[in-house]
Design brief:
The protein is of the alpha/beta class. It has one domain: Beta Polymerase, domain 2, CATH 3.30.460.80. It is 25% helix and 25% strand. A five-stranded mixed β-sheet has the order 1-2-5-4-3. Strands 6-7 form a two-stranded parallel ribbon. β1 and β2 form a beta hairpin.
Length: 181
């Protein structure tokens, strides 16, 4: 099935959900209303004709300075059908003042860590996620490093992160046991 046939079926099944379809260098992107992401993905996963059984990737994008605040963030999903060898990119804009979108963990278990990383780096909340917490940074970290308004030197550049001294001390102790000198 051609990617445009897939998007045609999506437009028919979810008439208000598909905002736009674009193609660049053979890759098709479907721009969706964020409120419909869970329903559309469930259809793409469960429908035997679609059979998108693999969530390859999920990431965030910050369009600060290029878009109005109502359209600042975007969550991008890359879906793949192993049996049919179809690749599809879904994109959902998420407003700055309500940076929330539905979690896809009920459909793909693999969405768990992707969503946690996106939350950790951008602060986008995935509603319905079983355990949405930081995955890369310490729990007491302030801010979201991949947002374009994040300070270059980190939060409170004049102050060190409270756990920094503890990490340095642990590193020093571990070096004492380094036998490969």
């Amino acid at each position: 099935m051609d990617p445009f046939e897939i998007t045609g079926k999506l437009k028919t099944k979810f008439p208000g959900a598909v905002l736009d379809v674009t193609e660049f260098r053979g890759q098709v992107s479907v721009h969706l209303d964020k409120a419909s992401i869970l329903d559309v993905c469930r259809f793409l996963h469960d429908d035997p004709e679609m059979d998108f059984d693999y969530l390859m990737d999920l990431c965030g994008v910050d369009y600060m300075g290029r878009a109005e605040p109502a359209q600042r963030f975007e969550v991008v999903y890359h879906l793949y059908s192993i049996a049919r060898k179809h690749l599809l990119r879904l994109r959902a804009r998420v407003p700055e003042e309500d940076a929330r979108v539905a979690s896809l963990t009920p459909i793909w278990n693999g969405a768990n860590w992707h969503e946690r990383e996106c939350y950790d780096m951008f602060g986008i909340v995935f509603e319905g996620h079983p355990e949405l917490k930081r995955i890369l940074l310490p729990e007491d970290w302030q801010g979201f490093p991949l947002r374009k308004d994040y300070p270059v030197a980190g939060p409170g550049a004049e102050d060190e992160w409270p756990g920094f001294k503890e990490v340095l001390e642990t590193s020093r102790k571990l070096k004492e046991n380094d036998w490969q000198k």
